[in-house]
Amino acid sequence: MTGRRTASDDPAPTRTDHHEKGITMDVDLTGKRVLVTGGTRGIGRGIVLALARAGAKVVTCYRSDSEAVEGLVKELAAIGGDHHVLKADVSDPEAVARLVDETEARLGALDVLVNNAGVISHVPFAELPLDEWRRVIDTNLTAPFLVIQKALPLLREGSSIITVGSRAAVVGIPLRAHYTAAKAGLIGLTRSLMKELGPKGIRVNLVAPGVIETEEFEKASPEELERVQTRYRGLTGMGRLGRPDEVAGAVLFLASDLSAYVTGETLHVDGGI
């Protein structure tokens, strides 16, 4: 496992303003110690940056080297604080063990655990190979099991476990039976762990995004992007796609004491789809 450490000076102010988006986040997580899996792209990146701006000390991980990794390191350094970006494939039990051990070495313990890492593919069910089924299930469902189980000794009373699921889990999507099954499994995992870990003072919740406009949309042609946006404008109550920072807002709520009596819940962040 390799690590990239950012600036370790005092955290930046905890108020995060998104004037251009009309969103202001005032959640103060100063001193909270957080592990976020899959934090260099898309929703995960939005979550990591929001947590850092709120004053948390953040460890996150990535599977493959990319410009996105270097970009996140630079953004976290600009925010300031004690943050670390580590390489780890969370579908690999040995890599998970190393990730949690490294997190303990750097942060000592955890107040918040965010399971975000995931993969998706689009394959007709009749043609879905077993290897692809296992890849998607392992990354989206088995990995949170591995990470939570390994990280349990680092969590204390008052800690919060948050898993990023999907609105797809309760509606189903053609060509994504493996993905939908994995995300549906996270709901059951959340409900069971809520009851098992509740007596220890640990809360367990799920955030279920709808269609979120991440950098993946930049790969689409203008025509394809307009087609997708037009479709979801008609399907959502808000009349638009979501943004990573809007999912991050839900995570900040569940990470904070504002949600001290919220557990076992699935919080849909889907614009009313």
Detailed description of the structure:
Belongs to the short-chain dehydrogenases/reductases (SDR) family. With 273 residues, the protein is α/β, with parallel strands linked by helices. It has a single domain, classed as 3-Layer(aba) Sandwich (Rossmann fold), CATH 3.40.50. It has helices at residues 42-53, 67-79, 93-107, 130-151, 168-171, 177-197, 222-235, 244-255; strands at 3-5, 16-18, 23-25, 33-36, 57-62, 84-87, 110-115, 155-164, 203-209, 266-269. The longest helix is centred in the middle third of the chain and has 22 residues, at 130-151. The model is unreliable at 5-22 (pLDDT under 50).
Features:
Sc_DH/Rdtase_CS; globular; eight-stranded mixed β-sheet; Rossmann fold; 18% strand; 273 residues; 10 strands
